[in-house]
Design a protein that fits this description.
The protein is 19% helix and 37% strand. It is α+β, with helices and mostly antiparallel strands. The protein is elongated.
Length: 1092
Amino acid sequence: MVRDYTRLLQASFFALILFIATPQTQAQTYKVEFGKNRIQYKYFDWNYYASENFEVYFYNGGRDIAYKTIEYLEEEFSRITETIGYPPFAKIRVFLYNSVVDKQQSNVGVNAGDFTVGGQTDFVQSQVELAYSGDYTSFKEKVIYSITEMLIEEMLYGGNIAEMFQSSFTNPIPLWFTGGIARYVSVGWDSKSDDAVREYVSTTTEDSFVKLTPEMNILLGQSIWNFIAQKYGQRSISNILNLARIIRNEENSIERTLGVPFDQFMKEWRVFYSNTNVELRKSYKLPNEANRVSGKNRNGMSFTDVKFSPDGKFLAYSRMSQGQFSIKVLNMANNDEKEIFNGGLKLNDQEVDMEYPLLSWADSTTLGIVYAEDGRNIVAVKRLGTKGEQKIEIPLLSKIQSFDFKDGGRFAVMTGAINDVPNAFTYNLVRGQVRKISDDYYDERDITFYPGSNQIVFISNRKTDSVFVDGPQTLKEVEGNQFNLYAYDIDYPDSSFKKLTNALAVAKRPKVVDGNFVLYLSDQQGINNIYKFNGYDSTSVQITDFLYGIKAYDYHPESRMLAFVSSQNGEESVFLKTIDIGSSMFSPVTPRRALEVARILAERRRSRIGKQYNQLDSLSNPEKLPTSTRSPLQKLDSLKEGAINTEAYEFEAQTKVDTRDYRFEKPSEDPNVSGRSFLSIYQNANAGNTIQGPTNYENRFQTNNVVTTFVIDELRSFSQLLEIEMNDYLRNHRFKGGVLIPLSFSSGYDVYGEYEYLKNRIDLSAGYYRKSIVRMNASNFLNQRFNKSTFNLGLSYPFTHKLRLEFNPFFTQTKYIDRDIRLLIPSNNPAQYVSEITSDYLGFNSSLVFDNTIVTGTNLHQGTRAKIRYETHLKMNQNAVSFSNLEVDVRHYYKLNRAIYLAGRAYFGSYYGNAPKKYLLGGVDNWAFNTIESSNAEINPLEFQTLFDNSDVLFHQFTNLRGYNYNTFQGRNVMTFSGELRFPINQLMSNSDLKSNFLRNLQFVAFYDIGSAWDDLSPFKKKNNLNIEEIRNDNSPFSAVINNFSNPWLQSTGVGVRTMLFGFFSRIDFSFPIRNFETLDPKLQLSFGYDF
């Protein structure tokens, strides 16, 4: 019943808009633009490899990883498309960056999440931007996730043009559904998702993920898809996705495919993971709330690192939020905590490197902080108790994964990547020299020194301890399920790496306690806990048993204090407790881990069978037998060297074949095709694996979006706006063009075109804008046209991602044409009347723009926007008269609590010069059924008369003030203030998951507006333009000036409703005007779009 009323209200509202809007309704088209910046610190010279299904683009230093990537993608293409049940319509373009820092310089997606009036259809592109993560293992997962995510988006929103237009009017599919399947395809059921769902089902009874963070949505969605695969089979995944593509509803697609009501399905999902959690909760424990030292984490911050000072007197930890980080140091003696350093940029619409910053103590009072700044990797050396810090650029490495100072801080070791190849390095800070410790294609991670020596411990997935090996040559060969501890003495570079552990698990973050004991994290039992390696007997034991995995930790042996990062009630926190590393414990393996180990062992068994199969096949293909000759330069494996005793080798005895009782072997199944579908085998058989390139990148253009919307201009009735935006793949070249056509075609039109060049730090632009206003009235033969044409060039220099300076020189020409038919009669056209006047101006405008806002919903922001703009028009012919303009626009958005927002705007504008123009105060943007107030001024700025050139109307500006008509006040100066309390219903309702687009975007607001417009005398003075009147009699030489004590400020207060209707953001304001200290009759105003 409620749904029927909602639909009826939507239909009635939209019909009212379309069919009752009268020719007297007016509109304003162009609004103030803010927006953030992307800064290019380096030049990108792009090339690409091409294959049957992909194009992988790369620049300097990325050639090797680009080839590996396209090779790996072709191998995985059939698996991905078969799993989701969707092949792409065109080749997928992958732009590969050497690091996240480089990717942040891309123009793709800048200001993409901000709000527009509506009617915009974004074209889904078969394109992905990837940043190399610093090691092959995590990069493999990232590649598959990004490609799958793109395919899901194309599948649901943009397979063809019709689907793109349809998707612009439908509700978006939630992130848990789309991001969850992408992560499931890339990593399956991993420990991170297992930890997340284990905690969620244990701490909450809600099955709605609306209030959770995006990361949590993805992890829980991953667990849902894993549950579907486990219970209903892998084929159900593609069936659900393809049904969702048709009906655009994730819940109904699950219901209809699985034959289970969605509520019942979610209960089964909860029971599935709850049952596996029961036994674990008995054996594992949670961190004690009293041990939390980082306080409540209400803002969802991520803690990246934690380190004790060498003497144990200080504990440093880093926390990150959307790219911005801070370093805090806790005094262990008095629990005094101070923030000693902060940095980074808040980038809510870009990928950030969640491994930065890294911490390492140079001595007991000097902390090293590794992070990225201005496109470079920096180590900031901060001494406690002093101001400032020393910043040193780390050369060569595009990504640093771990960093550790040797005592004294002059020498360090680190793991990272040069030319996208991960290795271990030494770094001499005094000389600025970086040298390789390893030189292969294995993943080296988490390096640290043995105290007081040049021996190191690191983590690696290498299968051998030899220094002289190449490692995996393709991404497919990279194994990410086994990382072990290795030791090495950098004073003896030709020695072998000493393998300390040999577990089928992933080890992380080694911490050397003394020469014989090493602590490290391991997921051996399925949850990341701390283990201790004993150098005396080469054994490892578990020493912690926390239910939710440890993300980072540090241990101080003298005080026996353990600091660690883990989760508590859905929040990451830093905990501190005393621990005895001499004790050990044994925790049960998680069901996920048991399945994972079984799968790994089964895969290894199939691999061995595959090798045996290939050996048997070689009997029938003797020409393919490998030669036994080894190149003299071939690298030897130290584990295998001398494995065969050639001096005392015993040959096996030959066995005779019993021809009377010979048993033929059963035909073996080719493991390379076992278990795969015919489609998958066919696709791989026809792929050809041909990779072409590298080829130089050439600019190719595509349509980014199309806007088909309406505006209601203050001077030209109801109008249709058509706009198209095109750009090259990298958004370095951007074209935008559009036309505004009034419903009454005789009212004039607007045409504009823009070009932007955004490849370098200084952005360049050029544009042409033509505005035409036609006024006709048959009763008095009025027929006038006013044209304004502007050619402009522009440049923009970004100081930071939030602040930029714009400078735009321009040439403007206005033309007034009077087409009164009576002027064709010579007697009615005196010589002093000119029916056509052209005015030329040369000028410039300059703006300082600040914007640090983040989009939290439709028409909802947090942060501050500000713009200071100066513009001047200099006369170029005798008809023109010079004038200038100064404007200041400041907007601030503050979130009072989880669902109430306070928004405020202060605006000031001033025209001055020989011919200042006017600000017309009152009304709102895109106001239907609007009214223009008759002016009491001697010259009405909106009056049109025969043979009267009112070209100033092309420059006048309408300024908003709710509760009043347009042009209630006018003057060459204006000042307004607006404040709103916004109550979004979707956020107010706890864990709501509203399906109706109307209800999900519904907002209630309470507002207060105040403003004034004046010429010479400010409204802050007792005598001003609005409360004094001059009385003059033409027959008398005397005049009088009286003060009528009118209030020079217009005020209004009221309430409003905002929501989305058919893709357009609509507003209803019910306001009570306050004028001259009296509250006037309430006014209802219907308008569309925009923030204020």
